[in-house]
Amino acid sequence: MKEKFIYVTNTDSNDISVISSKQESELTRIPVGGSPRGSMALHKSLPYGYVCNCAGDTISKIDLTNNKEDSKIKVGLAPRGVCVDPNKEIIYVSNSGSSDVSIVSTENDQEISRIKVGENPRFLSVSSDGKYLSVPCSGSDSIYIIELGENILDSKISSIVELGENAKPYHAFTHKNYNVYTANTHRHSVSVIDLHKKTLITEIPVGYGPRAVIADPYKNLVYVSCEASNSVSAIDINKNEEIKHIDVGPTPRGLKIDEESETLYVSAFKRTMISKYNQDGDGLSVVDLKTLERKGYVKTGLGPCSVSIYEPSSETLINTYETNNSTTV
After folding, report:
1. Is the CB of residue 99 less than 8 Å from the CB of residue 63?
2. Cα(34)–Cα(21) distance, rounded to whole angstroms?
3. CA–CA separation, 72 vs 55, rounded Å?
4. Which H, E and C letters describe the chain, residue by residue?
5. N or C: where does the chain have the smaller number of CB atoms within 10 Å of the terminal CB?
6. Are 298 and 283 in contact (CB under 8 A)?
């Protein structure tokens, strides 16, 4: 099985943990800006990642070959989520403080435009065909759907889907270009939106305080981290109903799946809580998707918020190990 690196955004220690998928241990940490939030978005062809610095109004560009910060890119106020366009040299950034989305060129690392959305936008998602950007707006209890133009400056809001009073959507996940799943933190539910019809299909009750959503690549399941229930909910997307709670320890937030190993990684956000699984209160739970059971735990920095997985080339892998072996955590 190929070696991969798991990157965990640590909000309270202002860094990113780098974890070996084979060793299941932390190799090093990358210092970034203040209060990094959301998972690191990966460039589609180059060894770079992008992570939001909520307290600094910037995006850190990460050199994944050497595991260090390359530069900072100025965006809007209090950025909370970033994603990469699958077709263009563009990244999108949700700015929770200025209630807009920054459009940033990855060719020159400059912001080129902003699109106004609802209040307090959080972790956004672009469809894999690059046609739509879904932006959950926690302060507006809605999802803003942006139609992305061939010329990126022609992009515009095509629809606003209301999720109900006090939904507080935290994360939007686009599945197979046609459905968007949103984690509604205060309604303890997941909304399902038809991306093409731009309508709400249904609302599914889950555990308390849902935060992130991700789809299983092999099963008709969607997983939701339920922060206040200390569990991950598994949803059958054919029936649109919750079928299982997976015990993962305290305050789960970020989710990421390694398809090859059928493993789900879950970050535990609240560093001060102690459990039998999480003696230090800061870490990453490892879940076997074949059994839907928790099988391990990896220590991280403080306040682990979100998770990304990077599979390097052979050359990058050698350089990364050389860098990590000379660094003390």
Report:
1. no
2. 27
3. 13
4. CCCCEEEEEECCCCEEEEEECCCCEEEEEEECCCCEEEEEEECCCCCEEEEEECCCCEEEEEECCCCEEEEEEECCCCEEEEEECCCCCEEEEEECCCCEEEEEECCCCEEEEEEECCCCECECEECCCCCEEEEEECCCCEEEEEECCCCHHHCEEEEEEECCCCCCEEEEEEECCCEEEEEECCCCEEEEEECCCCEEEEEEECCCCEEEEEECCCCCEEEEEECCCCEEEEEECCCCEEEEEEECCCCEEEEEEECCCCEEEEEECCCCCCCCCCCCCCEEEEEECCCCEEEEEEECCCCEEEEEEECCCHHHHHHHHHHHHCCCC
5. N
6. yes
Q: Pairing between strand 15-20 and 5-10?
A: antiparallel
Q: What is the mean pLDDT of residues 36-64?
A: 96
Other CB atoms within 10 A of residue 33 CB: 20
* Residues recorded for the chain: 329
Q: Which residue has the tokens 């990966």?
A: 42
Domains in the chain (CATH in brackets) are 5-325 (2.130.10.10)
**pLDDT-based confidence at 95, cuts 50/70/90?**
very high
- Which residue's structure tokens are 């970033």? 82
* Local structure of 158: helix, strand or coil: strand
pLDDT at residue 177, as a whole number: 79
The pTM score is: 0.92
Model pLDDT for residues 262-273, shown as the tens digit of each residue: 999 999 987 555
